[in-house]
Design a protein that fits this description.
By secondary structure, the chain is mostly helical. It contains two helices and two strands. A hairpin with a 2-residue loop joins β1 (34-35) and β2 (38-39). Keywords: Membrane, Transmembrane, Transmembrane helix.
């Protein structure tokens, strides 16, 4: 995959992950997060960092799917409107 496609996937995913991080942690305090009955046991910075990379990975997966779905198949040399049958 070309560097241009990687940039087309990762840059929008970075921006979306940043926005999600802002929205989520404007509403949720990391020290209030629990796993079962106990706290997570991580610092706030560790929770912010981990969640950012999780959000980025999820956004990158969505962007990669969008790029994969927009790739055009290779064109045949046949003129438009004609069938090109090849014996392989």
């Amino acid at each position: 995959m070309s560097a241009r496609r990687w940039i087309a996937i990762l840059w929008p995913a970075f921006l979306v992950a940043s926005l999600i991080e802002l929205v989520v942690f404007a509403l949720v305090d990391p020290s209030d997060l629990r796993w079962g009955r106990e706290g997570l046991g991580y610092t706030r910075q560790a929770i912010y960092t981990t969640s950012f990379f999780v959000f980025w990975a999820m956004s990158a997966a969505a962007c990669a799917l969008a790029v994969a779905l927009t790739v055009e198949p290779p064109q045949d040399d046949a003129p438009p409107g004609r069938f090109n049958v090849r014996a392989d």
